[in-house]
Amino acid sequence: MLPDSLLTSPVQVLARTAWGEARGEGREGMQAVMNVIARRAATPCWWGRDIITVCLKPWQFSCWNKNDPNHIKILTVTDNNKQFRDSLELSGQLTAGFLPDLTNRSDHYFNIHSAPPAWAAGNTPECILGNHAFYRLGPYGQEKK
Question: Which 8-state DSSP code applies to residue 115?
Fold first, then answer.
């Protein structure tokens, strides 16, 4: 299990979130999820005020939901896992300010193979990377297109 002290590390929480949400999408997919988290952290509001609170906000990143099958995986993964090592490297780059944004400042995304969430209706994605569509909506939908 993840020691409580790791829940206070932005690098660890960010890496675990991106790995839990997009490890099947490779480095690019995990980076794109990190870009969304960074965008949200840069716009503090209901979804959180920094990397940790954004990632752990209930029902925002499903891998942290206790009923999600990825939840136990993100708590137990170690750097013996290649994708997690990649996620840790990307996380370190993002927190140091050196990770480019692949999503055109997106703050929402969803898997295109699942039912679209209500907020996606009538909006155009900024980009589609792998199996995820990325949107820039703003925290209250003010940037909808």
Answer: P
Q: Which of 90, 97, 109 is nearest to 19 (CA)?
A: 90
Residue listed under structure tokens 């990397």: 51
Instruction: Name the DSSP class of 36.
Output: H
In Å, how far are 27, 81, 134, 144 from 120, measured between CA atoms? 25, 33, 10, 9
Segments of the chain assigned E as strands = 108-111, 127-129, 132-135
Q: What is the DSSP letter of 128?
A: E
Residue 129 CA to residue 7 CA, distance in Å, equals 28
* DSSP code, position 117: P
Handedness of CA 126, 63, 115, 26 (dihedral sign): positive
Coil, strand, or helix at residue 111? strand
Q: Is the pTM of this model over 0.85?
A: yes
- Taking only the tens place, the pLDDT of each residue in 88-111 is 999 999 999 999 999 999 999 999
91: which 2 tokens? 């996380």
